[in-house]
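Appendix C: a fully annotated inverse folding record. The material below is reproduced so that readers can follow the format used throughout the book. The structure is listed first as tokens, followed by the designed sequence.
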């Protein structure tokens, strides 16, 4: 099959490109602000550019991990968030489906308010920040207008690579400089390894799964526990991780506290060692 990955230069996109390439699929990846050799430059808001890429490649599948994923930036810049998280992916989805391509979109656990997680796919959404509202809007567009699409919701994605957008990398950068790291004890979530996420996404696509699918790691942890685990795994004392509460940071966007996801489809639950290589 032929695949286009819009946002192959991002954290998920990097793993997705590698996975599809490894299994022998024909893949075209795009970048926006982080050039990558072998990838095509694309701003997904540029309709003519998207049209010409899709009509030249004629993909069977279009993946959209591209997003404006910085929740605080989205809160402060709702119009830009709307452009990037709703208007552009809607336009890509419309063009892709007109050509008969399947669409895979990456949404988020932030569609939920975090009052009583972990959440299943069937639970009603209730976002509490601009980013989550825009992801919900995009999900609803796909469910209504692009019925064969696959909508994946991961949560707190992490990887082993040197990408500043990777949480593990950010923690290790501080620890390596001998600095302690503040991590909140009141946010619960289900951290998702990038390798497991793309392995399961590929399986779901091959199975012809349609609609919303939660793909997350098997454990529910606080950010504090997660950060301590990372420190220990890389040989640092967990005492370098300082427990704090969410309130301390006074960030623009609200975070779900009692959050996290679980999938109601048991065959899509990530298993350590089988679907991903445990990092900690
Ligand atoms: N990270 C998490 O913890 C998390 C949790 C839940 C859900 N998600 C969702 O999962 C998906 C992937 O997240 P991620 O962590 O991989 O994000 P990321 O590392 O920030 O990557 C975002 C990607 O989008 C591309 N992009 C941004 N604006 C674009 C534009 N106008 N046109 C084309 N491409 C554009 C970026 O390209 P350049 O880098 O080249 O500029 C990059 O490849 C996103 O939809 C995110 O909302 C993430």
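Designed amino acids, in order:
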């Amino acid at each position: 099959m032929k695949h286009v990955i819009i946002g192959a230069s991002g954290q998920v996109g990097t793993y997705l490109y590698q996975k599809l390439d490894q299994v022998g699929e024909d893949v075209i990846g795009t970048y926006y602000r982080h050039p990558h050799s072998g990838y095509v430059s694309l701003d997904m808001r540029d309709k003519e550019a998207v049209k010409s890429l899709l009509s030249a490649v004629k993909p069977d599948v279009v993946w959209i991990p591209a997003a404006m994923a910085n929740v605080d930036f989205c809160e402060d810049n709702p119009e830009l968030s709307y452009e990037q998280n709703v208007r552009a992916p809607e336009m890509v989805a419309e063009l892709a489906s007109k050509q008969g391509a399947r669409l895979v979109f990456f949404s988020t656990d932030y569609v939920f308010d975090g009052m009583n997680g972990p959440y299943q796919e069937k639970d009603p959404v209730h976002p509490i920040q601009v980013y989550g509202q825009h992801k919900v809007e995009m999900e609803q567009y796909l469910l209504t207008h692009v019925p064969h699409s696959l909508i994946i919701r991961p949560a707190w994605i992490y990887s082993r690579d040197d990408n500043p957008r990777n949480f593990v990398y950010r923690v290790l950068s501080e620890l390596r400089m001998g600095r302690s790291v503040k991590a909140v004890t009141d946010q619960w979530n289900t951290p998702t390894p990038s390798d497991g996420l793309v392995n399961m996404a590929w399986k779901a696509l091959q199975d012809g799964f349609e609609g919303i699918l939660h793909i997350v790691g098997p454990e529910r942890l606080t950010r504090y526990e997660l950060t301590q685990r990372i420190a220990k795994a890389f040989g640092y004392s967990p005492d370098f991780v300082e427990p704090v509460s969410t309130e301390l940071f006074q960030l623009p966007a609200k975070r779900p506290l009692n959050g996290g996801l679980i999938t109601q489809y048991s065959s899509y639950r990530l298993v350590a060692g089988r679907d991903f290589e445990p990092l900690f």
